[in-house]
């Protein structure tokens, strides 16, 4: 353990009953925890304040030091047998969340200790990539961003929201891999377990991809999309959403409102730049545009506008420019993931965009 890290917090056990104490220490060990035992004095007050969980034996409920403790969450009263009514009354007075009776509640108690010791997970960041017109290269850039972010982490979720687009798994060469696709998850609502979701999806290079189905195409429901994105982010996984213009307005609004970084890809043509201006500018009713906070990426095209000219048409600065990558088209057709090496145009742009996301993180902190 690093000298700059404090030791992990220990649950507090307050009991003078040796048999009950032995049982509690055994259960704590089963949960991977080491207890701090105290029944009075400064040690009890400090541990009561700092411990992730407080276990009070029924034998100390009437003790003056325990009755003087302030209320706090995460207090469990533990009894070696079914307690009489006064114990229940004392537990209520102390604000205990439960009276655990051993041995019947041993399983619950071990699970509760493990839950209390689980360190909070940093919420995963959300990147949404869209285009001002079709064929802008949105899917390729979204895949490149996910592949660039994956090394050194616990994985990244790449979400395909074009239910009629043939499946983003094709771009990663994962179309034959086992795993769930959108029709399997279209009915999701509310809270979903992120680890179960990630384990059920095809994975390439640290990127778990939730793609559309070629055998059962259909629109991606906004509620299901929200549930999937939230499940991954709550579990600490970064999420990259490929959001084409064909995505439903509710689905688009759901992810854009929560995005930590929105990237709008604009081919260097006048019509594409004019369309981008509509996407980032407020409407006539004064409402914010869906892509109002987006960063612009210009995709170079032969004989097209310069990045400065695109910025002038859109009325926004350009964050990055994607030059011609001769290998991108052939790799996509062959089912090989985009190249994201240091010298590749996609890799360089992806690193620049992810660096901007790091700056956002630092500013938020």
Plain-language structure description:
This protein has 365 residues and is α/β, with parallel strands linked by helices. The chain folds into two domains: 12-117, 3-Layer(aba) Sandwich (Rossmann fold); 126-364, P-loop containing nucleotide triphosphate hydrolases (Rossmann fold). 40% of the residues lie in helices and 15% in strands. The chain has 15 helices and 13 strands. α6 (138-149) crosses α15, α10 packs parallel to α11 and α12 (270-280) crosses α13 (307-314).
SSE order and pairing:
Elements: E1 12-14, H1 18-30, E2 36-37, H2 41-50, E3 54-57, H3 64-67, E4 75-79, H4 85-94, E5 98-101, H5 106-117, E6 126-131, H6 138-149, E7 156-160, H7 169-172, H8 182-185, H9 194-199, E8 203-204, E9 207-210, H10 222-234, E10 239-242, H11 249-258, E11 261-267, H12 270-280, E12 295-299, H13 307-314, E13 318-322, H14 326-333, H15 345-364
Parallel strand pairs: 1-2, 1-3, 3-4, 4-5, 6-10, 6-11, 7-9, 7-10, 11-12, 12-13
Antiparallel strand pairs: 8-9
Number of helices: 15
CATH-scheme architecture of the largest domain: 3-Layer(aba) Sandwich
Question: How many β-strand stretches?
Answer: 13
Overall number of structural domains: 2
Sketch the topology as an H/E string, one letter per element: EHEHEHEHEHEHEHHHEEHEHEHEHEHH
Indicate the structural class.
alpha/beta
* CATH fold field value of the largest domain: Rossmann fold
What's the CATH H-level homologous superfamily of the largest domain?
A: P-loop containing nucleotide triphosphate hydrolases
Shape: elongated
Helicity level: 25-40%
């Amino acid at each position: 353990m690093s000298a700059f890290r404090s030791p992990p917090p220990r649950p507090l056990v307050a009991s003078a009953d040796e048999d009950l104490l032995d049982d509690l220490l055994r259960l704590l060990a089963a949960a991977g925890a080491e207890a701090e035992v105290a029944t009075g004095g400064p040690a009890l007050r400090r541990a009561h304040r700092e411990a992730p969980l407080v276990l009070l034996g029924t034998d100390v409920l009437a003790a003056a030091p325990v009755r003087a403790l302030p209320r706090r969450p995460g207090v469990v009263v533990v009894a070696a047998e079914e307690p009489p009514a006064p114990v229940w009354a004392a537990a209520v007075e102390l604000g205990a969340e439960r009276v655990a009776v051993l041995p019947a509640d041993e399983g619950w108690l071990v699970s509760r200790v493990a839950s209390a010791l689980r360190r909070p997970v940093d919420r995963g960041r959300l990147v949404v990539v869209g285009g001002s017109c079709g064929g802008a290269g949105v899917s390729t850039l979204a895949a490149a961003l996910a592949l660039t972010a994956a090394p050194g982490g616990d994985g990244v979720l790449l979400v395909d929201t074009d239910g009629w687009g043939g499946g983003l798994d094709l771009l990663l060469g994962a179309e034959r891999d086992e795993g769930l696709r959108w029709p399997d998850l279209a009915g999701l609502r509310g809270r979903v377990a992120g680890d179960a979701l990630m384990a059920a999806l095809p994975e390439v290079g640290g990127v778990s991809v939730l793609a559309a189905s070629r055998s059962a195409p259909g629109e991606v429901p906004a509620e299901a999309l929200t549930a999937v994105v939230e499940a991954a982010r709550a579990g600490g996984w970064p999420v990259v959403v490929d959001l084409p213009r064909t995505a439903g307005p509710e689905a688009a609004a759901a992810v854009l409102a929560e995005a930590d970084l929105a990237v709008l890809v604009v081919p260097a043509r006048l019509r594409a730049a004019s369309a981008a201006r509509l996407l980032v500018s407020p409407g006539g009713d004064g409402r914010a545009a869906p892509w109002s906070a987006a960063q612009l990426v210009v995709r170079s095209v032969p004989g097209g506008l310069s990045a400065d000219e695109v910025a002038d048409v859109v009325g926004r600065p350009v964050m990055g420019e994607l030059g011609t990558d001769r290998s991108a088209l052939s790799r996509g057709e062959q089912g090989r993931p985009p190249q994201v090496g240091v010298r590749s145009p996609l890799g360089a742009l992806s690193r620049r965009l992810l660096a901007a996301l790091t700056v956002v993180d630092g500013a938020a902190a």
